[in-house]
Design a protein that fits this description.
Blueprint (H helix, E strand, L loop, with lengths): L5 E2 L10 E2 L1 H9 L9 E2 L10 H11 L10 H21 L6 E4 L2 H15 L4 E5 L4 H10 L8 E5 L9 H11 L3 E5 L13 H10 L3 E5 L11 H4 L3 E5 L10 E5 L25 H16 L1 H22 L4 E2 L9 E5 L5 H10 L2 E2 L6 E2 L2 E2 L3 H5 L4 H4 L2 E5 L6 H21 L12
Parallel strand pairs: 3-13, 5-6, 5-7, 7-8, 8-9
Antiparallel strand pairs: 1-2, 4-10, 9-10, 11-12, 12-16, 14-15
């Protein structure tokens, strides 16, 4: 049993004793991880920082300098920022002047959807049904009075969750130059499905529409070439490929007309005001360089681990349904467990040391069924009965085997618990 040392404040012997700082550190360290190992299978939510990125961040943070200042320290900070910008541009197939640093993927998506739409002459905005909420909710705002009463359309997806190319062509035929923006993600964050963004972008660009792609889950995991995709803008976030939380970028065509959504000092082409996070962008560039350097071998390794995970779960949980399919990100698996609550499975697996997620949105403490699975044709029961297990550069065979071993008993217990769910059945895949 842990017995912390106590410290008595100088206010007198009658003051209650409280644990000292060393005791607090020991208490915080004494969690469930000291009792059983933890297997982290939630890399699509965030992935551990790469050691090289940690070192780069610490080194940059140990020096002073605002990149907008004109003195020596400021110029040195600016040089670090521009070197990071050039590195990202090199690995992502764009010009350095097209890299706009942001606080992450959500801000980048908001800036693209709101800023490009505000600058466009057209009034029609189209978004994929399976987009991240940073795109969907920004588009929903555009349909309101405050957002300008844009005509917002939702592009349907097929059974694997990919946007239908015919839906874009049909929309172009219907509205022509009224089309202001099309937003379709590169790789889905819940089921891993990859869209053919270049094909989707082509008809929209022919009528002068801007095209945005959310590549937050794809960058660092599959090849991404901004120019080859033919899009106007592309979002990314450092913590998805081993960089720090709170930093990302929007790649945006130098000739694009985009309005800022925040105001201040006019940094980043006057699109994203605020002092640039020098340590953050330096660490992001370091993480991306390492991720791109090992991308080919890591994709093979993670695909093998993913397939082992799927095969193993199918053995221990008969009737499990694999969502998505076709060309997809190497590290994401989404499974439906008919008759089980996804929330119950999360709790049971967490107790067994397996960390994963449902992939569904949670608003005001109420879990919602996955909008991605619903859009792909799943019923509500199936959409509530699904888990996302995602792998990354730290994942091992031991993680996969532990997940397989835990999922059989967890699914059985979740079914026994019932929670009023009916069998999910067909339509989930």
């Amino acid at each position: 049993m842990l017995t912390p040392e106590v410290s008595t404040p100088a206010s007198g012997p009658g003051t209650p004793a409280v644990p000292g700082p060393d005791a607090f550190r020991r208490i915080l360290a004494c969690d469930m991880r000291t009792i059983r190992p933890v297997h982290y299978l939630d890399h699509a939510a965030t992935t551990p920082m790469r050691p090289a990125a940690v070192a780069a961040y610490a080194e940059a943070a140990s020096t002073v300098g605002n990149a907008s200042s004109l003195h020596g320290s400021g110029r040195r900070a600016r040089r670090r920022v521009e070197e990071a910008r050039e590195s990202l541009a090199h690995h992502l197939g764009c010009r350095p002047s097209e890299v706009v640093f942001t606080s992450g993927g959500t801000e980048a998506d908001n800036l693209a959807v709101l800023g490009l739409s505000a600058a466009a002459a057209g009034d029609v905005v189209a978004v994929g049904a399976t987009e991240h909420h940073s795109v969907l909710d920004a588009a929903a705002h555009l349909a309101t009075d405050r957002g300008g009463r844009k005509d917002v359309r939702v592009l349907p997806v097929d059974a694997r969750g990919a946007v239908r190319i015919d839906s874009v062509r049909d929309l172009v035929t219907e509205v022509g130059p009224r089309l202001a923006l099309v937003a379709t993600m590169l790789g889905n964050n819940e089921i891993g499905t990859l869209n053919d963004v270049a094909d989707l972008a082509a008809p929209a660009r022919e009528v002068g529409a801007a095209v945005h792609t959310d590549a937050v889950q794809a960058v660092g995991h599959v090849p991404v070439d901004f120019e080859a995709l033919g899009v106007t803008s592309l979002s990314l976030s450092a913590h998805k490929f081993g960089g720090p939380l709170g930093v990302g970028a929007l790649l945006i065509d130098r000739g694009a007309d985009c309005r800022p959504i925040g105001f201040g000092g006019g940094q980043e082409r006057d699109l994203r005001s605020g002092s640039v996070d020098v340590p953050g962008v330096v660490a992001m560039a370091t993480a991306l360089e390492e991720a791109v350097g090992e991308m080919e071998s890591e994709a093979r390794r993670l695909t093998d681990l993913r397939d082992r995970l799927v095969d193993g779960v199918r053995r221990v949980v008969p009737g499990v349904i694999v969502n998505g399919g076709g060309e997809r990100l190497p590290g994401i698996v989404n499974l439906t467990f008919p008759g089980c609550s996804g929330e119950s499975l999360i709790l049971l697996l967490d107790a067994a040391g397996i960390e994963c997620s449902t992939g569904s949105a949670c608003t005001a403490g109420v879990a919602e069924p996955s909008h991605v699975l619903l859009a792909a044709g799943a019923g509500e029961a199936a959409a509530r009965s699904s888990l996302r297990l995602s792998l990354g550069y730290t994942s091992t065979e031991a993680d996969v085997e532990a997940a397989i071993a835990a999922l059989g008993p967890a699914a059985e217990r979740a079914r026994v618990a019932g929670l009023g769910l009916t069998r999910a059945g067909a339509g989930a895949s």
